[in-house]
Amino acid sequence: MREDAESLDITDVTANWVNAEVLRAGLDARIRSLADLAHTPLFFGRLDYVPARTFYIGRRHVHDAEGDPMVIDWRAPVSQPFYRASKKDPQDIALRRRFGYAAGELTAYEDEHLTDPSDAETGSRLLQAEIERPRVGPMRDIVATIQPEQDEIVRAGIEGSLCVQGAPGTGKTAVGLHRVAYLLYTHRERLSRAGTLVVGPNSSFLHYIEQVLPALGEMSVRQATVTDLVAHVPVRGEDGAEAAGIKGDARMAQVLRRAVRSGVSMPQEPCVVVRGSRRWRVPADELASLVEELLSRDMRYGAAREALPQRIAHAVLVRMEQAGEAPDDRVQDAVARNAAVKAVVKTCWPAVDPAKLVLRLLSDPEFLAEQAEGILTEAEQQAILWAKPARGVKSAPWSAADAVLVDEVDDLVRRTPSLGHVVLDEAQDLSPMQYRAVGRRCSTGSMTVLGDIAQGTTPWATASWEEALRHLGKPAAAVEELTLGFRVPRQVIAYASRLLPEIAPELREATSVRESPGDFSVRACPAPELDAAVVEACREALLHEGSVGLIAADARVPALAVALDAAGLPHLAPGTETGEGSRLTLVPATLAKGLEYDYVVLDEPAAIIDAEPDIRTGLRRLYVSLTRAVSGLAVLHAAPLPPALAS
Ligand SMILES: Nc1ncnc2c1ncn2[C@@H]1O[C@H](COP(=O)(O)OP(=O)(O)OP(=O)(O)O)[C@@H](O)[C@H]1O
User: For the CA atoms of 83, 421, 32, 211, what is the dihedral angle to 10 degrees?
Assistant: First the structure.
């Protein structure tokens, strides 16, 4: 297939050089997509349908010289039974074969005779081996081992939105990315027009997952944080927890809606349009009824502002007709652009600059009081005002939450275009205003919302998926739960789950499908010896194969970096790719979300808890940090552990 693509002669097939360039780029992309990937086999499974028809299943479609299929794409309907068929429901499959590879070499296969009653149902060794395989480098695809409950989510229809609650390591991120790949395959035309977006918590996380999508054969997916999406103003300020909470509250949407319309006023003067020798006069009360009519409509502020001159012009045209003239559309357009009409629009329906409006709200106590009256208390208004009024948009101390407010205003003024599909990962952490910002980018498309209530580490983290989905504008989305854990060893998940009654009492403990119990230790040591003990634990962890993450409270990171350097242990920052030569990452606890390491050394839990504004958020941050380990976890502490973990 690659040779065919390479040997295509496209000289003289296009009419002009632009088309030639486009064709060349398309062909180059195809040749690239057909490159051999070392260690990535062409197929990983085989299905024998009854009656005898055999299909090989792989990451992409492969055909032979005659164009007959040799390997079927895992996303094609024919491949679905590879993930779903069972002895109970064989789905016309007589044999399912899984192939095992080591470094690209075929080393094993495993058969299941789904229609043969004498063939006992046994767990898959290859699946176990895949799950237990040490991790290094970026996240891998799971196409060979997607589980039935995961496959239902991956292949759910594009029409409906879906929300997935899942404990740490149940594969939410993996499933979300494979769902994107599935949707792009199945609805390529539609999504290439409308666009697809994956929203993640921070750039380290996005970097960690970005290699998975091209590995799945997809490149045209945008990845962004919420902050990237709303980058209307330069963010350099920070809010305290209280101000951030209020700015993120859905009531702010009401305040902003009122503020946007606060400049609208009723015309006091008639509008007089002079054309040639004639003057046409629309009285003030008629103008006012036009303005009122537009106010009463559920219309974007900017669209209404464009409609108003047309409405006034229409009133003028009616008068022209009454006077026996026969004006056409061009006359209406000309009247709409008349200086007198423009002047009415300028005073009665002034243009709104989103950033300037929010700047005024946060700088001007009287303006804020007017707009927030009956919505925010006086104390709340006080809390969100900037310490001193900002002078201009460029120099204002914008915070991340402020940028979301500007985005809301922007959408009140002109409609935000909708994408075809949006995947929102670590969704539990968003504020209602952030949910609205993501939701409006998907107003006519569908969403996949992934998260874990127990891992909510913002003071405003959502209390329920129902609430989050309401703010996202997808109240009808189905909520599914993933319960099988693929990452965290049994002992470790059991230990971390002791925190659940305090951080998310309604959630069930995750089960681990991993057979190995995992290395697990908790060590107390005197405070002066903690750094040395942590360095030693890292050294021990590095004796094993795979990646090692040292997770510590953000404030502890500089000291630990010095200690590691002094001990001659090279270490990376999160988001930098681990490899054979550099396997140790020093991870600030606030960036640990979504990441995983084979061995985790966890420094001083008390410091991780104390860094958060309240105890629940602190314990949740600790829960996230405890659940990053694939094979082993060592907890080292000098200060006392929280009571749930102490005994
Ligand atoms: N079906 C599967 N087969 C093999 N590995 C899997 C499967 N599902 C998930 N995994 C692996 O389990 C690990 C955890 O997956 P993932 O990071 O998607 O979980 P998560 O639910 O997003 O976790 P967290 O809530 O901690 O962010 C990853 O290494 C992933 O590749």
Answer: -70
pTM of this prediction? Answer: 0.90
Q: What is the widest separation between alpha-carbon atoms in the chain?
A: 100
Return phi, psi of residue 525, to 5°: -150, 160
Q: What are the extents of the domains in the chain? A: 2-33, 271-348, 488-646
pLDDT tens for each residue of 604-626: 999 999 999 889 999 999 999 99
Q: What's the pLDDT band for 218 if we cut at 50, 70, 90?
A: low
More confident residue, 217 or 597: 597
Q: Name the token pair of 267.
A: 């015309």
Say how far apart CA 299 and CA 29 lie, in whole Å. 43
Ligand 1 atom nearest the C-alpha of 177 is 18
Interface ipTM: 0.98
Residue 545's pLDDT is 86
The span from the CA of 96 to the CA of 172, in Å, is: 26
Q: What distance in Å separates the CA atoms of residue 552 and residue 533, rounded to the nearest whole number? A: 14
Best mutation site among 82, 132, 487 for ligand 1, i.e. most ligand atoms within 8 A of its Cβ?
A: 487
What is the DSSP code (8-state) at residue 572?
B
Contacts of 120 (CB under 8 A, 6+ apart): none
Question: What does CATH list as the number for 488-646?
Answer: 3.40.50.300
Contact 484, 513 (CB under 8 A): yes
67: left (phi over 0), alpha (psi -120 to 50) or beta: left
What is the chain's length? 647
SS3 82: helix
Query: Cα separation of 603 and 636, whole Å?
Result: 5
The closest residue, in CA terms, to atom 16 on ligand 1 is: 171
Give the count of alpha carbons within 13 A of 127, CB side only: 16
Q: How far, in Å, is the centroid of ligand 1 from the Cα of 14?
A: 47
Out of 139, 172, 175, 180, mutate this one to test ligand 1's pocket (max ligand atoms within 8 Å of CB): namely 172
Tokens 């490899």 map to which residue?
A: 579
167 annotated as a binding-site residue: yes
Residues 21 and 16: their CA atoms lie apart, in Å, by 9
171 is known to lie in a ligand binding site: yes
Beta bridge partners of 633: 520, 600
